[in-house]
Design brief:
The protein starts with 8 loop residues before the first strand and ends in an 18-residue tail after the last strand. A 4-stranded antiparallel beta sheet has the order 1-2-3-4, with no helix packed on it. It has a 4-stranded antiparallel beta sheet with strand order 5-6-7-8, with no helix packed on it. The protein has 2 domains: 95 residues, Thrombin, subunit H; 97 residues, no CATH class. By secondary structure, it is mainly beta. 0% of the residues lie in helices and 48% in strands. It is built from no helices and 16 strands. It is globular, with a radius of gyration of 16 Å.
């Protein structure tokens, strides 16, 4: 299988509030010169800025707030999960404190500005506030099914959809920052060996 490279590395995730007209942030799991990074891009001008942090070895996911701040769900060289905060999606970033996630996984932001963070191998969901760089846990850890990695809330932040590659399906949960409840799963149109790593809502 061919490896696809972007201008600054191998993309693993992307986030935007308005991809057509605004900023798009791209997580590069690894960079052309080694460690992963976060690229800042637009459709009009491509990827013009690349953000690095000395603690990052790989970047798995990225989130972008309406304020213009962004976060990278990353791993250090020992494989430990960490969260890097980039104020205004600029600079070298700061490692978030009071961040409890054990394993790497996807990120999203709910309508209240809470950061939703998946921990893959222990199948947990954490909900934080702040993380700029100090995090405050407002919900979780909540148990998820399968082997979750990427997930997203709908626009009113009442539903959370998670890709479940272990069962080749999408798992749906009711969502509130203080609680989640499994509702159902679906696999329509997904044949054998179609691993479902991610899922998104329209509208976001």
């Amino acid at each position: 299988m061919a490896v696809i490279w972007g201008p600054f590395g191998q993309p693993s995730d992307a986030a935007s509030s308005d991809a057509q007209h605004g900023k798009i942030v791209v997580a590069n799991v690894s960079g052309k010169s080694g460690a992963g990074s976060v690229s800042v891009c637009t459709l009009a001008h491509g990827c013009t800025t690349n953000l690095r942090n000395s603690n990052i070895y790989e970047v798995d996911a990225v989130a972008l707030a309406n304020s213009g701040d962004c976060w990278a769900s990353a791993r250090d060289i020992a494989g430990s999960a960490l969260l890097i905060y980039f104020r205004g999606c600029t600079g070298s970033g700061r490692t978030a404190t009071h961040f409890q996630k054990v394993y790497p996984g996807g990120l999203d932001i709910d309508k209240n500005g809470n950061l939703i963070s998946i921990s893959e191998f222990d199948k947990r969901l954490y909900v934080y506030h702040g993380c700029n760089p100090s995090c405050r846990l407002v919900g979780g850890p909540f148990a998820l099914q399968g082997t979750p990695f990427y997930g997203h809330v709908n626009k009113p932040s009442t539903l959370f959809a998670v890709g479940d590659p272990e069962h080749e399906q999408v798992d749906m949960y009711s969502y509130a920052p203080s609680s989640i409840t499994y509702k159902y799963s679906f696999d329509e149109g997904l044949g054998p060996s179609n691993d479902v790593e991610g899922v998104a809502f329209n509208p976001r």
